[in-house]
Design a protein that fits this description.
Layout lengths: L6 H8 L6 E7 L10 H18 L5 H16 L9 E7 L2 E7 L6 E5 L5 H9 L3 E6 L3 E7 L4 E4 L6 E2 L16 H6 L3 H6 L1 H20 L4 E4 L2 H9 L8 E3 L9 H32 L3 E3 L1 H9 L3 E7 L6 E4 L2 E4 L11 H11 L3 E5 L10 E5 L2
Parallel strand pairs: 5-9, 9-10, 12-15
Antiparallel strand pairs: 1-2, 1-4, 2-3, 5-6, 6-7, 6-8, 11-16, 12-16, 13-14
């Protein structure tokens, strides 16, 4: 399954392709009885895609078989252990991709000349991704986290490791190993070592390289002595948040999630307060829109500066007389994922998008925007 969405990856997904490029979307479940039925629903959608490929007069038998085979390869890569709230499969001649999403999607099959990315974009925005740099004197790991999960990043030089003090390359006479120093409370002297300082400088350079490609909030976890040294090295001048929590450099995903939970909750609360204040300020300056129809119009015109959406808000609509009206999912002209369309258009025009808890915008129709003009 694909690990993360970058601007380059998104541009690649959106580029035109030889028809047909197939998108299969499926709402999935992380646990419970419904999770056991996800594989059945996926097979049904893939069968529908195969039927449409065979029956489409614009698709030759050879091309249809090639795309169907690519879709089968995508299905084979689906990992139930990493199930989120939605699944997106992309297949075209010579390529396929699988994405597990932290936001539900409508069940649908789309044949087009590019892949449908709006649900992917909205899910990525809702996930509130972060990096956690977990530091010890002889090991540094990087964790790729979001609201629902955290996985260790094992590229770009991570994890960084080095031998204990006293082995070949250490300064001065043989000294106890780093783990023993930590046990006997000699961590501060360990972090005064020039060899350790050089090791952590290397870690800072490595994480800065990742941030240049994948910018997002950064948290840094470690013992107080490690955080103090990183502060001297300038790690926190760029906005990284220190987390005084040792042991995560050798921790598990469960321990990382546990350590980060209160910090993410505080971040969400702070962001909600900022968002509501921004909306109130926009209303006072008559640059405010609320409700799906009104916000949709402004988003299509590129006027949205800040978009706020309740993270459980979904709506199926169709266009009538230049406005959005409720529609059934089986209406031929229905937009099943209109909220995600609005999010995608807002992001494409440079707007900030903030997902807020359910009922935070009940007075505004569950979606609101601060406008540029």
């Amino acid at each position: 399954m694909h690990p993360s969405l970058t601007p380059d990856t998104l541009a690649g997904l959106r580029r035109p392709r030889a028809y047909p490029a197939v998108t299969v979307l499926l709402p999935t479940h992380r646990a419970g009885p419904e999770a056991g039925q996800d594989a059945v629903r996926l097979r049904d959608l893939v069968a529908e895609a195969g039927k449409r490929l065979r029956e489409d007069p614009a698709v030759t038998a050879e091309r249809g078989a090639e795309v169907a085979a690519a879709l089968d390869r995508a299905v084979a890569e689906v990992d139930p252990a990493r199930a989120g709230d939605g699944l997106a499969l992309f297949a075209a001649p010579g390529e396929h991709q699988v994405w597990s999403l932290a936001r539900t999607v409508p069940a649908r099959v789309v044949l087009s000349d590019t892949f449908v990315t709006r649900n992917l974009v909205a899910a990525h925005a809702a996930e509130r991704p972060y990096w956690l740099l977990a530091v010890a004197a002889d090991r540094v790991t990087l964790w790729d986290g979001g609201t629902a999960d955290a996985t260790e990043h094992t590229a770009d030089g991570f994890p960084l490791t080095r031998g204990p003090e006293g082995r070949e390359g250490a300064e001065g006479p043989a000294a106890p190993g780093i783990e023993r120093k930590e046990r006997i409370g000699d961590v501060p002297s360990t972090f005064r070592s020039e060899r350790t300082r050089g090791f952590l400088r290397e870690a800072v350079r490595a994480v800065n390289g990742v941030l240049a490609v994948h910018p997002r909030p950064v948290y840094v976890a470690g013992e107080a002595a490690a955080l103090s040294l990183l502060d001297e090295l300038g790690m926190f001048t760029a906005g990284a948040t220190p987390v005084p929590h040792g042991g995560l450099a050798r921790g598990t995903a469960a321990r990382v999630r546990q350590a980060m939970a209160p910090l993410l909750a505080a971040r969400e609360e702070a962001e909600l307060g900022t968002t509501l204040r921004d909306l109130d300020d926009a209303r006072g300056h008559q640059r405010f829109a609320a409700g799906l129809d009104e916000v949709w119009h402004h988003a299509m015109e590129g006027r949205v500066r800040l978009l706020a959406v309740e993270d459980t808000f979904r709506a199926t609509v169709r266009e009538a007389g230049g406005h959005l009206v409720p529609a059934a999912a089986d209406d031929l002209d229905a937009h099943e994922d209109i909220v995600d369309e609005v999010v995608e258009h807002a992001l494409e025009t440079g707007a900030q998008v903030r997902f807020v808890p359910a009922d935070a915008l009940t007075g505004h129709g569950r979606i609101a925007a601060a406008l540029r003009y």
